[in-house]
Amino acid sequence: MRVLIPLDNPGGGGIARVGRDLAAALSRALPDADELLIAGSLDGLAPRPNIRRARRVGTSRGRVARVLSDQVSVGVAARDADLVHMPDAKAPLLSRRPFVLTVHDVFFLDYPQWFPPAVRVYKRRLLTLSLRRRPRLIVCVSDHTRRRLRAHHPGVCEICPVKVVHPGLHGPTTAPARPTDSEAEPYFLTVSAIEPRKNHLGLLGAFRAARRADLALRWKVVGRPQYGGEPILEALRAADGVDVVGRVDQAELERLYQGARFVATPSFAEGFGFPPLEAMARGVPVACATGSALDETVGEAALRVDPEDGRGWMQALITLDNNAALRDRLIVAGRDNAQRFSWPAAAQTHLELFRQALGEDSS
Amino acid sequence: MSASGVRRVLHVCEPTHSGAALVSFRLADGLRASGVQPTVLTPPGRLSTWCVEASIPVVDLPLSRRSPGSYARSIRVLRRLVATTDFSLIHAHSSFSGLLVRLARTRAFPPIVFQPHAWSWLAVPAELRLPLKRLERALAPRTDLLLCVSAEELAAGRAAGLKPQRAMVIPNGVPFPAQTRDRGARPVSPLGGAIARLVSQKGIDVLIRAAGRPDWPRGLAVEVLGMGPDESQLRSLATELGVQDRVRLRGYVDDPQPDLERWDLFVLPSRYEGAPLALLEALAAGLVVVATRVAGVAELMPNSRFTVPVEDPEALARALAAAIDDWPIAVAEAAAFRAGAATEYSLETQLDRTLTAYRELVDTGS
Question: What are A22-40's pLDDT values in tens digits?
């Protein structure tokens, strides 16, 4: 079996990172008889003779040019593959090879107001077009995403099987340094893009109310603004007690996790929920919104609050600051929960599904 | 008044922090004085916290709207609770709770009171309205008493073809303080307010657009208290129109009562409502009110000069200007509405009427 995986956006956000992590896990799990073709960089993949880089054509400059050249690259590289796995929900349009899609979320259908009009139309049409090209299999990163996909495309299960494979998680990647003296003041942390979906403004209101009720914690906001993020950033920068840290490298992120009293994830919706789960994997207690995929992935391992419940969030901030026993309990529960998500297991499941998609015996 | 045969009531409420949640809590809490023992079945959240603080038994409902798997679990929890407790009746608050309770209904269930707090089909895209109306029609025979918060809401239900076994209107009530701040003098820099979830229904975008119109009164600023998924878009809209000083989004505020005291007037720009509780709170606080003509407004503010059509920023700006220009009239009108509402829309009246409705339902059988 020869599988092509395009990793065309090495500097991209969460979805690109999941694609790269999956490719890295596949590179370790791949049987010698199979072959993995990567359209993109081989960084992070196991150096093995049956893993090679596919030829890439075109440019990576400019959004439209990149989308087109990505398709051309996949079309050319797919000639050497039996199956193409697209780690995002966009079908290879210039190849007739069987393909598998991964769908991370359908927020552009659930909450179109959170996307620029052009992106919303592009994503909607691309998904429809991708389904019309009849993938052999669709992988959803959570059952929530599968349900939402089926809600918007009720006939999808007649096109192909739709399976749920949870991605894996990484533990700490570097030995964290001790917090510096300047951070002697205790803080809690949010780690996410700054955009409406992540509900920073809702948490800000609760944080202000909690500070008036004598919460002594600061709030460190990690992440960079995305569409609709500017007014959020402006409000965060203007607020007392909030440190907008911006985008940080992995070592700095590990250090911030290490020093945080807890991590808060007040998102209105998540397709999987990496931020709270990665905090759990690092032994940091978590306060997390209810609803969406978080009910499935986070479960009872965090302090759960409705994303629109300002008072609930205010109380959660105060409670997690004051209640060391609760934090200890959540640390244990979080670590246990995070262990459910493993890249080796996800890679193994993908290999089995790839064989099924090709009609091969996976036994 | 005695509770007669009404001993134990199960309140099922899926929203955890909205007006419906507040109403269900006030009923559960208030009727204890009449000997009605409440139990509240709700997802963890603010309502649950209120109940715990008030020593009202509360059971966790594992319900999440976007998680169909949770529906079956919730039905199991509800059926188990009903099987093990001798409830006189079940009071379902909100469309979603009503759907759950009536779907779960078995012969072992006591009578069901359903209070939609705004019909489900008002909150969905046009193509889903008919299916939801059909669903409500199908569930109507499983409803022993339909409780609407306004005559308009009941009329809308009947217009949709609903034929419940019994139906009545019991308006929401709020506590009316004996005295309010004197607002007789025309404010030099008028300060308005709105309390709303930041979602399309509440029309805060219409208010922001009104603030960009030439008729917007000079010096008027409106503070908006509340949070929701549309907050950042609303901030962007205000910035884009250059009106962020005229409409100030203050986000979540733990206790809005001091703000109600501070404000001169209250704005309700909603696209639809069941019976807007925030409007009632504003009237109780003695505020001049400018509102869209949504369900409940005509009953609270009959023939008001300061109501406008929905989705009309120009009309809203003009009505605000008129209220400030004719301030003595607006204040007199607000005082009259408050006096009229003080009995009809007091919490005590709502409790009395609800208890009477419960008794009639239980004593005469469903």
Answer: 999 998 998 988 999 988 8
